[in-house]
Structure formats: C-alpha cells, structure tokens
Amino acid sequence: MKIISIAENYEWISLMNKVVITPNHSIHWVTNESDLYDQLQVDKPSMVFLPDSASYDVYSVCNKISTSFPLTTTLLLFRSEEEVDMRSALKAGAGDVIFLSSPAAMINQDINLAIEDCELKSFQQQDLMPKKNARVITVCSTKGGVGKTTVAVNLAATYRKKFKVVVVDLDLQFGDVAMFFDVKPKKTIYDWAKEDKEGKLIENYLSYDKHAIAILAAPQRPEFAEVITGDDIRKALNNLRQLFDVVIIDASSYMNEIGLVALESSDDILLMTYLDLPTLKNSKILYDTLVSLQLEDRVRIVLNRQTKVLGITTSTVEKVVGKRIFSSLPVMEKAMVTAVNEGKPLSYSHPRSQVAKRIFQMAEKLYHPKKQSTIEIQKDIHLDPVGGRN
Ligand SMILES: Nc1ncnc2c1ncn2[C@@H]1O[C@H](COP(=O)(O)OP(=O)(O)OP(=O)(O)O)[C@@H](O)[C@H]1O
Ligand SMILES: [Mg+2]
User: Where are the domains of the chain?
Assistant: First the structure.
C-alpha cells in the first residue's frame, strides 16, 4: 500500500521520519496538494499523512480526499492537541488524528493501526465485509460503583483503534462518561431531545475525545433527565447505528423504560457484578428479568474487581447468578484512580495493564467481524500482520 505525505519543508520531513516509523512501508513525498491528488487512485488503497499547514486548509484537503478517493485513509498530523478542531476532522473523514507531541511509541501504534484499518477498508469496499450497522453493547448493573463506566469507556477506547465508536451516557442523572474522557460537552442528549424533533441531526450533539471517540453526553443537570423518553432513546440509537460501527451504552443502575429500550436494542448486554453477596443477589434479579424478556442469549456476565474473597469464589458467582462468567477484571486501584482523574482510559494510559488487556480480550470476544477477512488478507496477499495492539 502506498503511503504519501506532503513535504512542507526539510524540518517537517526530518521530524516525520523520526516519529513515523512504518516497518513495511516507506513514505512517498510530494511537494504540493495537486501532486498529492495525482498520486491517489479511486480504486486502490492508499494512506495520506496530511500535516497541518499554512499553505492549505487541512480539513478541506482531507474532505476532498475522502470524497474523491474512498479507499484512501487520511491521517491528520498536528504538532499538539490545541491545534486540532476534532469536529472538522471527523466531518472531513479523517481516519485518525496524530499529535507529534505524543510519545513516539504511541504515534507508531496509532499509525500501524491506521495502516491495518486502511488495508481492511479496501476489502470492506469490495463487499467482503458487513455493511455499517453498528453493534450495540450495553453495560449495566443493579448497583452503582460496580464499574460500568470504567468498562464502557475502556471498551470504546479499545474498539476505536479499528472502528468508529460512540458512547451513549444513559446514566441520565449523574452520568460521567464525558469526564472519564476529559471532555467538557457543549451539547448533551438533553439538547438533542429538546431541539431535534426529527432526530436526524444527532451528529451535531456529539462531543469527541482526542482520539475521536464520540460521546452522547448525559444532561448537565439531573432534573433535565425527566424530559427524555424511551422513544427518544429508540430514535437516538436507530440513528447512531447508521453512523457508527460500535455503539456502547453506559446504562444507569436504576431500571426504567429508558434502560429497557437500551437493553432491547442491544446485541450484547454486559451485566457487571462484584464479589459480594448483596451485589450478586441483585445481579441474579436483573438476570432473571432479562431471561423473562427473552434477552438471556445476549447477556454476558462480567465480574469486576476479581480478588480472593473469603467464602466467595467465581463458581459461587456462577451458581448465584445462574450463568457462566464471560469475563473478569482484576482489581487495579492505583492506575484506575490516575486514569479517571486524568480523564484517560486505561487502554490509552496503561495499555499493558491487566485490566486493559482483559478489556481488549473482552472486546475481541464480543465483536470481531473482520477477523475472518484479516486472516484471508494475510493468507492471500501475504501482507505482514500489523501489530501494535495492547
Ligand atoms: N477493576 C477495578 N479496580 C480498581 N478500581 C476500579 C475497578 N473498576 C472500577 N474501579 C473504580 O471504581 C469506581 C467506580 O467505577 P465506575 O464509575 O466505573 O462504576 P459505575 O458502575 O459506572 O458507577 P455508577 O453507577 O456510580 O455510575 C471508579 O473510581 C473506578 O475507577
Ligand atoms: Mg457510571
């Protein structure tokens, strides 16, 4: 696959060569925008590293590439986070945004994943892979503090490396998804429900983290939650399904019509539980409710803060709840506190931590539509597998 970049000046080239290390590909440099377009082909996958520049509008060039060359992935390069307008980047169809101020290892990982993404995209275009119809995953529990938001944001950060992801904060009164991503939303689900009667403009009400994970944030004030109905949620999810590959819902522990709509719309329901008897008893009640709604096949039990607790083992959990554990996450106090306080999911800040690894495995087990095709790509045209995942 061809990788192209515009050479602004020698300083830029040497900076890029230092941070952009792509083991199986070299960069083809062009000197201006029109030479760049000349290098691209409508039916061949390419990747463009497009540096922010005073000589062109980075978003319009990116937009032109996405519309005219559908198999080309454009990575926007900025010196630092302050310089990017994430909404414009997404609207322009950028594959990812790279900050040259980030650690070189992180830049490399992002670039390798983008290359993999780009290679897969060409197969997608050839109809070898399913069309966009998002996988909807709800994270729920009957008690607060069990780790729903932690799992929702970390799953999102894991999936973002391959997919377009949105996290919907359905903890409408006290939701803190945006805070976990260190994002201050300008608009929330409340503004959307109030202003967009047709429900077609939901994109305008999303906020984005610095890795372009979209967030439909919870209302700013708890009393605003009352105006949002189950029908609104159905409409929101139907629209988001068309726009994203993965929709992750962080549900409230309080079960009402809104929670039920989310559960019924989900392909996977992650029922979070914990090694203490009151939580297990409540998890059992929720599981029985889901069975009565005929949703049991979609339920995956996630045991958080797995640790040695006297008298309770994982088989106690399975016995009490009545379903096998799908995944368990260890206790990880220190890194978790830092991650939340800094607003950085563990999958970014501690990708090699046990929790991040388990969440990565969980993500793979839950949803991996491209696995088959990836294997075929590697077998058939001998592409080197691209690493860099946590
Ligand atoms: N495996 C873990 N090890 C250590 N701390 C954890 C773990 N999982 C979650 N936590 C911490 O527990 C607290 C509660 O987690 P979180 O906010 O994700 O729960 P929640 O179910 O979303 O709560 P709420 O119902 O209040 O929204 C957070 O401070 C989080 O950092
Ligand atoms: Mg929460």
Answer: 2-125, 135-369
